[in-house]
Design goal:
The structure is a homodimer of 134-residue chains. The first copy, chain A, has 134 residues and is an all-alpha fold. Chain A has a domain at 1-56: Multidrug-efflux Transporter Regulator, Chain: A, Domain 2 (Orthogonal Bundle), CATH 1.10.1660.10. Chain A has helices at residues 3-10, 14-22, 40-54, 59-70, 76-110, 120-127, and strands at 29-30, 36-37. The longest helix of chain A has 35 residues, at 76-110. The structure holds a DNA duplex (30 and 30 nucleotides). Chains A, B: This is Cu(I)-responsive transcriptional regulator.
DNA sequence: CCTTGACCCTCCAGTTACTGGAACCATTAT
DNA sequence: ATAATGGTTCCAGTAACTGGAGGGTCAAGG
């Protein structure tokens, strides 16, 4: 398969696939014309990568997951550890975003949003935020 | 004030402050020795920036907010619009992360995480995820 | 045989918001 | 005089691509 077909079937842009080759996540062969030639296993790996990336795994996580995927003798615990680490990061990001949302929702709610210039959002950004939501 | 004191009082690293000068968010004067000399208003702006950044506003958002902050005649609606746009982005990011968390929690829960090699996490990454949580 | 168009190639630069480090100058304390 | 501290600039790197320039390959049509 050439890159266009792999892109189509994996759902990844061709540019991304070339990039993944650059960083050695996939290693397609080359034809006499210099074109990349992808095997089915390459397609599987790329699809795997697309799924893992869409779940927010980092490229390095993906690299590790791919290695584990290839290793028939690894323990499921190794995979679970990566997934749990990632889950923990997601949860801490969620907490952070929820705190931002709470503060911003409060500020937006307080601000009249009209033609007048008084604006609690700017006041609070300038002065610090200590009050709690109403 | 020199940069060290401003860094201390604003809570921002000196490097970050130099960067903010680079991108023209602050424009401190210079002393005869080449050192930056910050006025109180610079400190206020930097504190403002630190707060806004910690709430996840982008640098460009901050640039707009600072301009509005400086503009005594702007309408609070202009500020509110930026905050609401940011809030919307936060909420969509939250939804995305919550979806990831749901899928990952499910997968982690399914995986025994022991010495055996069978691992639903890898299977699902390889095969696609269509089942719902149990 | 030539051209057109779709595809492929490589390489460079830009994105976001900093951060680290090298090499060097100024100030202050001993 | 010297050493420590803190200031300066500039370059490079981070994550994970994305866009674009400039050019090669291939199949079909005139």
């Amino acid at each position: 398969m050439k890159i266009g077909e792999v892109a189509e079937r994996s759902g990844l842009p061709a540019k991304t696939i070339r990039y993944y080759e650059d960083i050695a996540l996939v290693t397609p062969k080359r034809g006499g014309n210099g074109y990349r030639r992808f095997a089915e296993t390459d397609l599987h790996k790329l699809t795997f990568l697309g799924r893992a990336r869409s779940l927010g795994f980092s490229i390095e996580d993906c690299r590790n997951l791919l290695a584990l995927y290839d290793d028939r003798s690894r323990a499921s615990a190794d995979v679970k550890a990566i997934a749990q680490g990632h889950l923990a990061r997601i949860e801490s990001k969620l907490a952070e975003l929820e705190a931002m949302r709470a503060t911003l929702t409060h500020l937006v709610h307080e601000c009249a949003g009209d033609q007048r210039s008084f604006c609690p959002i700017l006041s609070d950004l300038a002065a610090g935020i200590e009050q709690d939501a109403d």
